[in-house]
Amino acid sequence: MTAIAPEAVLLLVVWGTLVALDLVSVPQAMISRPLVAGTVAGWLAGDVEAGLRVGALLELFALDVLPIGAVRYPDFGPAAVAGAALAAGAPWELGLGLSVGLALVLAVLGGWSLKQVRRWNARAIQRRAAALAAGESGAIRVLQYGGIARDAARGALLTGFGLLLAWALSRGVQLDRRTAVGLTLVAVGTALSAAAAGAVRSAGRGARLRWLAAGVAAGTLLAVLR
User: Fold this and answer.
1) What is the sign, positive or negative, of the torsion defined by CA atoms of 65, 144, 159, 16?
2) Greater pLDDT, 131 or 203
3) Residues 116-134: pLDDT tens digits?
4) Parent domain of 136
5) Cα–Cα distance for residue pair 117/136, rounded to 1 Å
6) First vs last Cα of the chain: how many Å apart?
7) Are residues 58 and 107 in contact, defined by beta-carbon separation less than 8 angstroms?
8) Residue 1 lies in a domain
9) Separation of alpha carbons 37 and 52, rounded Å
């Protein structure tokens, strides 16, 4: 992790808050996808390529996640921001594994925080049940704005905590080259396995699975021929 200027840290927290909001609140413009979140965070941290690598690996983990309803799922947006900040400035083969590991832990923590926000929103609705039953538009606005504010606070706290952990890891954890490269290989292999498992599960059986197999075969052949 390179030394990041205070204004860049502030921008990273703002960006992490925005991508956290984008997941379920507003504007749902897909900026919460780890590939986007990580790449922009890498740019803000001064190493766009590091952010792209972290985001790409996290995207493989996230491909099988469908954030709908009350299903509990990881929040990869702020996690990608922190992971990209940790990876910035380090040789990719040495920093990628640890950065992705940090991001995965934060993504799980983000999923837990989403559950807490839902509980707080439910309590707020219960407190204004009578006003809602009476059709008061003001109560609806208060609940909407309050839900957005709670989600924004969640995203800011999660991003700030992730950046703090990234700073602590960059200062307190010194891995030898062999261990660091090993972590990177594990991260890449696990991401590919997760993406493959998700693709097979989503394809199901029948024609879609056959098309998936054909695509894998064609892609492998093109990679070998190159």
Assistant:
1) positive
2) 131
3) 999 999 999 999 888 888 8
4) 6-225
5) 23
6) 34
7) yes
8) no
9) 9
Residue 122 token pair: 């439910």
The token duo for 97 is: 């594994």
Q: Which of 122, 130, 34, 148 is nearest to 81 (CA)?
A: 34
Q: Are 158 and 78 in contact (CB under 8 A)?
A: yes
Residue 35 has pLDDT above 70, yes or no: yes
In a domain? residue 114 = yes
In a domain, 128, yes or no: yes
Residue 12: how many other CB atoms lie within 10 Å:
25
Is residue 147 one of the residues assigned to a domain?
yes
* HSE, side-chain direction, 13 A CA sphere, residue 155: 29
- Number of domains comprising the chain: 1
Cis peptide before 27 (omega within 30 of 0): yes
Q: What is the pLDDT of residue 1?
A: 73
